[in-house]
Write a structure and sequence with these properties.
alpha/beta, Rossmann fold, 2 domains, nine-stranded mixed β-sheet, 19 helices, 18 strands, binds adenosine-5'-diphosphate
Length: 495
């Protein structure tokens, strides 16, 4: 049995404390799976204004923690609670985190001081680990927001008794967001000017935090094998392909798992009725309730397609917007859309139900309970992403028997098996070209399978619901990466 590791998860969000997307699901679940393997994780996140203090019973761990930035000393406090017995720490700084949004204001404009906010948070998290005085084997850092931890560890803490031998593993959840900022923040961040080079932090005269993190991390992962291959090519890498290729030997893909204690129709307390692949009666109830709640015609015989998404260009919903009228005119199906983001798509999907009353419904906003209802009440689930590092909703959809209709990219391609019309095998419907035509052909394929090959549809639902994407499998793959990172660390004297 491998030795037990102390692993610090340093991240900008964590479900159930605070969540905007899939990153939060990962930080909320992977530590638990690692603990089941015998490791000792701790979680460190910012304490945002939106945190529900009563629900989580936070207690003060440090009244005052001093954090040296490049050109000043900052102070913060630290709160603590436990997530299923895993210690979780919250860095409290009114100046940086006492705001409604995590990364942007109510109009989706990025906060102008994001480099300062997350640079500070990264440095504060390492200072907290030092002050806790327990050696840490691995810091597992996530996306541009905390990628700087790897640089801080190697530049500032290489000789520290707590962090000196610590290995860093950076997981890239979304390479399109790199934390690129004007150079004014560089002094504050304290990475030293000698490191402002095109191999490290410099990016066309600006500071690129993800790029620096890629350079300094001992191991890098992304959240599916297919996406790991994709981002080593210029088409998908948003400029990072050369830097990932330099570290090709230390870069791999691990598919996210999902937490079946939260996303499981057999026990889900949020849905109107529970069900399993052996007894789908409850799914029919969920569909009826969803149709009633959303103002759709209540009819079990019409296929219902769900969408839950951030409205960001990555998600390909403009393809659906371009195809939806033709689809509605040519086929009989219903659609429920839940999401928010891009103002054009918000208006489009807010107004769409009026054009197709009883057939299309939408809710513009974030609603976790409705997300569970949609998974449970839908027959199919649409994710037409232009790129999708892993994607969680298609994994939830498999478990809830809502057959995914996806573009074959990243984790969508890795996790969905294409339907075979001859045998009825497969767990979903994939298309390849990112075009409205390809999307509408594939939605048509799913709808015709519902009506004309209903035996195949049921067979696929059973196969989908049987799939196991639990964290226990992925946690073993992360464990391997941690040990590799530690080996790399032992063989090096820094970067
Ligand atoms: P991403 O992290 O790129 O947004 P993922 O598919 O990996 O996409 O994860 C999205 C997560 O956020 C899922 O848990 C999904 O249910 C949730 N989600 C996204 N939009 C909404 C919304 N409007 N309301 C409720 N949950 C949402």
């Amino acid at each position: 049995m491998p030795r037990s590791l102390r692993i610090a998860f340093i991240a900008s969000e964590c479900d159930p404390f605070i969540k905007t997307g899939g990153l939060a699901d990962v930080i909320g679940s992977l530590p638990g799976a690692l603990r089941r393997l015998g490791h000792e994780p701790v979680i460190i996140v910012p304490r945002y204004a939106g945190l529900n203090l009563e629900r989580f019973r936070l207690r003060r761990a440090f009244d005052k923690l001093g954090v040296w930035m490049g050109n000043c000393l900052e102070w913060c406090a630290v709160d603590q609670t436990a997530l299923d017995d895993i210690p979780a720490f919250f860095i409290e700084s009114n100046k940086f985190f006492d705001r409604n949004g995590l990364y942007h204001d109510d109009t989706f404009r990025d906060y102008p001081d994001n480099a300062y906010r997350f640079g500070f948070f990264s440095r504060a998290a390492l200072q907290l680990l030092i002050d806790l005085r327990q050696k840490i084997d691995v810091i597992h850092i996530h996306d541009w927001q905390t990628s700087s931890c790897a640089a801080y560890q190697k530049i500032w803490h290489w000789n520290n008794e707590i962090l000196g031998n610590t290995a860093s593993v950076l997981t890239i959840h979304n390479i399109a967001y790199q934390g690129v900022y004007p150079v004014d923040c560089y002094e504050y961040l304290g990475f030293q000017w000698g490191n402002f080079t095109s191999q490290k932090f410099e990016d066309h005269g600006r500071v690129n935090l993800l790029k620096g993190g890629i350079h300094y991390s001992d191991r890098i992962t992304t959240v599916s094998q297919k996406h790991a291959d994709e981002v080593r090519t210029p088409e998908y890498a948003y400029g990072m392909a050369p830097y990932l290729n330099i570290k090709a030997e230390r870069f791999s893909g691990i598919l996210n798992g999902i937490d079946y204690s939260i996303w499981n129709p057999e026990i889900d307390p949020l849905i109107p009725a529970v069900y399993s692949r052996f007894d789908m009666t409850g799914k029919a109830t969920c569909k009826r309730n969803l149709q009633e709640r959303m103002g759709l015609t209540v009819d079990a015989t019409i296929p219902l397609i769900g969408v839950i998404s951030r409205f960001a260009s990555q998600k390909g919903l403009h393809l659906f917007a371009a195809a939806v009228s033709e689809l509605m005119n040519e086929m009989i199906f219903q659609c429920v859309i839940l999401g928010s983001g891009d103002p054009y798509l918000e208006t489009f999907f807010r107004e769409l139900p009026a054009q197709y009353p009883g057939r299309v419904a939408s809710f513009i906003g974030f609603n976790n309970e409705l997300a569970h209802w949609i998974e449970a009440g839908s027959d199919c689930f649409l994710m037409p992403s232009l790129y999708e590092p892993c994607g969680l909703n298609q994994l939830y959809s498999l478990k809830y028997g809502a057959l995914p209709i996806v573009r074959a990219t990243g984790g969508l391609d890795d996790s969905i098996d294409q339907y075979c019309e001859r045998t009825g095998s497969g767990t979903g419907f994939k298309f390849f070209e990112p075009s409205p035509k390809a999307l509408s052909n594939t939605v048509g394929w799913a709808v015709s399978t519902w009506y004309d090959r209903s035996g195949h549809f049921r067979q696929m639902q059973a196969a989908a619901m049987e799939k196991d994407f639990s964290w226990d499998v992925s946690a073993v793959a992360y464990e391997d990466v941690y040990f590799q990172a530690l080996n790399d660390r032992m063989g090096s004297s820094g970067v």
